[in-house]
Amino acid sequence: MNVARKMVRWGQRKSPWILHFNTGACNACDIEIIAALTPRFDLERFGVLLKGTPRHCDIMACSGPVTRQIESRLVRIYEQVPEPKLVVAVGSCATSGGVFNGLYNVKGGIDQVIPVAAYIPGCPASPQAIIDGFAKLLKTLEEGK
Amino acid sequence: MTVGSAVLNILVFPGFLFLVAFGLAGEFVDRKLYARLQNRQGPPWYQPLADFLKLLGKENVIPEGADRPTFRLAPVFALAAVVASIFYIPLGSTTSVLPFEGDLIVVLYLLVIPTVAFFLGGWTSRSVFATIGAFRAITQVFAYEIPLFVALLAPALLANTWSISGIAAYYAGHPWLWLVNLLGFGVALVSLLGKLEKVPFDTPEAETEIVAGSFIEYSGRRLAFFRLAIDCEAIVGASLVAAVFLPFGLGLTPVLGILVYVAKVLLILGILALLRTLFARLRIDQMVHFCWSVVAPIAFLQILINLVVRELI
Ligand code: SF4
Question: Could you give the domains of chain A?
């Protein structure tokens, strides 16, 4: 790996900008994601910034089960994110479908539709768990996995 | 000027490398201060560099239907105009690299080009939000640009020269005269906030309402260059204001002079960060109203004061 590539890799680890996308959550997980971004928890310590547009983001934080209605939109948003990109499933629903699993309008977890890099369980996942999940994900990137 | 020293000036000091390094450092100072004022830890010192490198490695997306050449060239033009304007601003002494009579006007015009580039980039990217952001950016120009021009012309009137180096030399020769321009200094700071699209004048990018404004469709390298252009514009704008309004420590040795210059720029960036923390975003009509009914009259008052003072001395 040459130096330029190494520097870009380093940048990718140190500056993950996230996009928050609700795929059908009950809203509790979303509130916890927002809580994790408030000054109290201060995710900017790790370089995390919340971005509104998929074009600027590196990590999609998806919460909630994938409903049949949101499925095509989720794929579309995912495709709008420029490479390299990662998806984090926040909450039990995003991980597996959670309490909504088996409903007629629910497809299941996020990984039924798009590839997921990290799962953060919890109903809802607490800000501490979310920060821990992100830190662990960035750590795995460091080890080059 | 020999070819070698010209290349050195363009690429290293005070040109590209110096400006980029100082711009990234300036962004860090701004973000860190902002974070500390909100009682949080804030980003580490290498954060702006990491953001920049990461963006260089991202995929470049050009939206369908966008005007490709304009979309591609807008960030380059923004950055080039900003880097070009540093050559006319004296840093830490009373002469710039290429001083000539009238460079104040040239610099003011060069510093409008980034805003025009934001407008063109947003306009050609065919996103509704970007179009709204682009129009707000151009509306804002009419609000802050005239107070900024007037505020910078007032000291020039007193110094009887249109060159920034000449202004710096004049005020260095008349130590206490800068106190006359304090009103103009305030106006210039407020206008600088508008130029850099910072809170409270960040309506063009207002991420909570129009997502990211003109930059919404930009990704990867081009976004990196736009961000770099804004960082460098902050430095150039602060240097311009420092050269015109804060003429201290200009006769020192080169190294000491540069240190004083850096301190002045950091002071101005600190004030901007403070203002950014204190205020919430204004609506675009409130912003225009504020600039025309409060800021512009103060700028004209400054001209009046300077005309009177000129008659007195
Ligand atoms: S995991 Fe729990 S809190 Fe989160 S969306 Fe599902 S039901 Fe709501």
Answer: 16-134 (3.40.50.12280)
